[in-house]
Design goal:
The chain is elongated, with a radius of gyration of 28 Å. The protein has one domain: Jelly Rolls. A hairpin with a 2-residue loop joins β6 and β7. The longest helix is centred in the N-terminal third of the chain and has 20 residues. The protein has one helix and eleven strands; from the N terminus they run αβββββββββββ. By secondary structure, it is mostly beta strands. Strands 1, 2, 5, 8, 10 and 11 form a six-stranded antiparallel sheet that branches.
Length: 177
Protein backbone atom coordinates (compact mmCIF):
# COMPACT_ATOMS: atom_id res chain seq x y z
CA UNK A 1 0.00 0.00 0.00
CA UNK A 2 2.86 2.39 0.74
CA UNK A 3 4.19 1.86 -2.80
CA UNK A 4 0.85 3.06 -4.27
CA UNK A 5 0.85 6.09 -1.97
CA UNK A 6 4.41 6.90 -3.02
CA UNK A 7 3.48 6.67 -6.73
CA UNK A 8 0.38 8.85 -6.27
CA UNK A 9 2.38 11.42 -4.30
CA UNK A 10 4.99 11.51 -7.07
CA UNK A 11 2.27 11.92 -9.69
CA UNK A 12 0.77 14.86 -7.80
CA UNK A 13 4.22 16.51 -7.55
CA UNK A 14 4.86 16.08 -11.28
CA UNK A 15 1.39 17.41 -12.14
CA UNK A 16 1.83 20.40 -9.82
CA UNK A 17 5.21 21.25 -11.37
CA UNK A 18 3.66 20.94 -14.84
CA UNK A 19 0.80 23.30 -13.92
CA UNK A 20 3.27 25.79 -12.44
CA UNK A 21 5.44 25.62 -15.58
CA UNK A 22 2.37 26.28 -17.76
CA UNK A 23 1.24 29.16 -15.50
CA UNK A 24 -2.00 27.38 -14.72
CA UNK A 25 -1.14 27.50 -11.03
CA UNK A 26 1.29 30.35 -10.32
CA UNK A 27 4.11 29.87 -7.84
CA UNK A 28 4.43 32.34 -4.98
CA UNK A 29 7.65 33.56 -3.40
CA UNK A 30 7.35 31.05 -0.56
CA UNK A 31 6.87 28.07 -2.91
CA UNK A 32 3.24 27.75 -1.85
CA UNK A 33 0.48 27.56 -4.38
CA UNK A 34 -1.32 30.89 -4.52
CA UNK A 35 -4.85 30.71 -3.23
CA UNK A 36 -7.50 31.79 -5.71
CA UNK A 37 -11.09 32.71 -5.06
CA UNK A 38 -13.93 32.69 -7.49
CA UNK A 39 -16.59 35.37 -7.21
CA UNK A 40 -19.78 33.37 -7.18
CA UNK A 41 -22.72 35.77 -7.11
CA UNK A 42 -25.91 35.05 -5.29
CA UNK A 43 -28.83 35.25 -7.73
CA UNK A 44 -30.56 38.61 -7.51
CA UNK A 45 -34.33 38.54 -7.16
CA UNK A 46 -36.40 41.40 -8.51
CA UNK A 47 -40.18 40.95 -8.68
CA UNK A 48 -43.35 42.96 -8.16
CA UNK A 49 -47.13 42.62 -8.37
CA UNK A 50 -49.59 45.50 -8.11
CA UNK A 51 -53.36 45.81 -8.49
CA UNK A 52 -55.61 48.72 -9.44
CA UNK A 53 -58.37 49.00 -6.81
CA UNK A 54 -59.49 52.62 -7.21
CA UNK A 55 -62.46 52.01 -9.50
CA UNK A 56 -62.82 52.86 -13.17
CA UNK A 57 -60.17 54.94 -14.90
CA UNK A 58 -61.12 56.76 -18.06
CA UNK A 59 -62.64 57.98 -20.19
CA UNK A 60 -60.31 60.88 -20.95
CA UNK A 61 -57.56 59.55 -18.70
CA UNK A 62 -54.66 62.00 -18.82
CA UNK A 63 -52.12 59.85 -20.76
CA UNK A 64 -49.96 59.18 -17.73
CA UNK A 65 -49.10 55.84 -16.21
CA UNK A 66 -51.89 53.77 -14.73
CA UNK A 67 -51.14 53.87 -11.02
CA UNK A 68 -51.66 50.35 -9.72
CA UNK A 69 -52.15 51.36 -6.10
CA UNK A 70 -52.19 48.09 -4.11
CA UNK A 71 -48.72 46.55 -4.08
CA UNK A 72 -48.70 42.92 -2.92
CA UNK A 73 -45.09 42.12 -3.85
CA UNK A 74 -42.13 44.44 -4.40
CA UNK A 75 -38.84 42.57 -4.02
CA UNK A 76 -36.05 44.95 -4.98
CA UNK A 77 -38.36 48.00 -4.60
CA UNK A 78 -38.58 48.55 -8.35
CA UNK A 79 -42.29 49.43 -8.51
CA UNK A 80 -43.50 52.84 -7.33
CA UNK A 81 -47.30 53.04 -6.80
CA UNK A 82 -47.14 56.87 -6.70
CA UNK A 83 -45.89 57.04 -10.29
CA UNK A 84 -47.20 53.70 -11.59
CA UNK A 85 -43.76 52.95 -13.00
CA UNK A 86 -41.30 50.12 -12.51
CA UNK A 87 -37.66 51.28 -12.42
CA UNK A 88 -35.08 48.55 -13.00
CA UNK A 89 -32.80 48.29 -9.95
CA UNK A 90 -30.34 46.29 -12.08
CA UNK A 91 -29.84 45.75 -15.79
CA UNK A 92 -31.26 42.58 -17.27
CA UNK A 93 -33.96 40.70 -19.11
CA UNK A 94 -37.37 41.20 -17.51
CA UNK A 95 -40.79 39.67 -18.04
CA UNK A 96 -43.87 41.84 -17.52
CA UNK A 97 -47.55 40.91 -17.54
CA UNK A 98 -50.47 43.31 -17.71
CA UNK A 99 -54.02 42.09 -17.12
CA UNK A 100 -57.02 44.37 -17.10
CA UNK A 101 -60.79 44.31 -17.31
CA UNK A 102 -62.21 46.46 -20.06
CA UNK A 103 -65.05 48.58 -18.66
CA UNK A 104 -68.51 47.67 -19.93
CA UNK A 105 -69.76 50.23 -22.46
CA UNK A 106 -66.25 51.36 -23.43
CA UNK A 107 -63.37 50.27 -25.64
CA UNK A 108 -59.81 50.07 -24.36
CA UNK A 109 -56.39 50.89 -25.74
CA UNK A 110 -53.47 50.22 -23.41
CA UNK A 111 -49.79 50.66 -24.27
CA UNK A 112 -46.78 49.10 -22.57
CA UNK A 113 -44.02 51.69 -22.34
CA UNK A 114 -40.25 51.15 -22.02
CA UNK A 115 -38.76 54.49 -20.99
CA UNK A 116 -40.81 56.76 -23.26
CA UNK A 117 -41.31 54.33 -26.17
CA UNK A 118 -44.36 52.11 -26.66
CA UNK A 119 -43.14 48.53 -27.15
CA UNK A 120 -46.51 46.77 -27.20
CA UNK A 121 -50.22 47.46 -26.99
CA UNK A 122 -53.60 45.91 -26.27
CA UNK A 123 -56.71 47.10 -28.10
CA UNK A 124 -60.29 45.90 -27.60
CA UNK A 125 -63.22 47.58 -29.32
CA UNK A 126 -66.34 45.55 -28.54
CA UNK A 127 -67.56 47.61 -25.54
CA UNK A 128 -68.32 44.67 -23.24
CA UNK A 129 -66.62 43.55 -20.05
CA UNK A 130 -63.57 41.61 -21.18
CA UNK A 131 -60.42 40.41 -19.45
CA UNK A 132 -57.29 41.14 -21.51
CA UNK A 133 -53.70 40.05 -20.83
CA UNK A 134 -50.32 40.70 -22.42
CA UNK A 135 -46.95 39.25 -21.42
CA UNK A 136 -43.75 40.70 -22.84
CA UNK A 137 -39.99 40.21 -22.49
CA UNK A 138 -37.94 43.40 -22.32
CA UNK A 139 -34.29 44.25 -21.69
CA UNK A 140 -33.78 47.18 -19.33
CA UNK A 141 -30.70 49.04 -18.23
CA UNK A 142 -30.34 50.01 -14.58
CA UNK A 143 -32.67 52.95 -13.90
CA UNK A 144 -34.79 52.47 -17.03
CA UNK A 145 -38.57 52.47 -16.54
CA UNK A 146 -41.40 50.24 -17.73
CA UNK A 147 -45.03 51.21 -17.28
CA UNK A 148 -48.61 50.90 -18.56
CA UNK A 149 -50.59 53.74 -20.15
CA UNK A 150 -54.29 53.97 -21.00
CA UNK A 151 -54.61 56.12 -24.10
CA UNK A 152 -56.73 59.23 -23.71
CA UNK A 153 -60.10 59.08 -25.41
CA UNK A 154 -63.73 59.61 -24.54
CA UNK A 155 -64.32 55.96 -25.46
CA UNK A 156 -61.51 54.20 -23.49
CA UNK A 157 -61.93 52.98 -19.92
CA UNK A 158 -60.51 50.27 -17.66
CA UNK A 159 -62.31 48.73 -14.68
CA UNK A 160 -60.26 49.04 -11.53
CA UNK A 161 -62.26 47.50 -8.68
CA UNK A 162 -61.66 44.02 -7.35
CA UNK A 163 -58.53 42.24 -8.54
CA UNK A 164 -59.23 42.39 -12.27
CA UNK A 165 -56.56 44.88 -13.29
CA UNK A 166 -52.96 44.01 -12.40
CA UNK A 167 -49.39 44.75 -13.43
CA UNK A 168 -46.44 42.59 -12.48
CA UNK A 169 -42.99 41.58 -13.54
CA UNK A 170 -39.74 39.96 -12.59
CA UNK A 171 -36.08 39.73 -13.54
CA UNK A 172 -35.35 36.65 -15.65
CA UNK A 173 -31.61 37.21 -16.00
CA UNK A 174 -29.27 39.96 -14.82
CA UNK A 175 -26.81 41.53 -17.26
CA UNK A 176 -26.44 43.96 -20.13
CA UNK A 177 -27.97 42.59 -23.30
Amino acid sequence: MSFISFVLFGFVLVLTEHFIACNVVPKTGSDEVEKRTVNVGIPTVVAFQATLTTGRIGPNYARGAIKFNRVTLNIGNGYNPSTGKFTAPIAGLYQFTVTYLQQNGYSSYVRLIKGSTAVSQILANHKKYDQLTKTILVTLTKGQTFWVRLERSSSYAVYGAGRYTQFGGFLLSAGNY
